[in-house]
């Protein structure tokens, strides 16, 4: 069984998690987390999620944010995280109704 590699925020009461792919090594996870906005101290001993790091606000509600697992809402540009502000653009769906993400011809 593959394990998801995850790093959690060390702020008390903060629920933020950064999830990585099961194939990524521990070093790669920290690197990816840092790239996503997390604060990682030397050796990855203390982690700070982007929200705690930049706003000092703990993530108190879990949601779909790929960066901090915080709760998200529908913003003008996509699904926006309440906590770290990360935005996932809406997939190219709707509008017409059956338009699907571009891919190889069916
Ligand atoms: Zn945090
Ligand atoms: Zn977030």
TrEMBL record:
This is Uncharacterized protein. The lineage of its organism: Bacteria, Bacillati, Actinomycetota, Actinomycetes, Kitasatosporales.
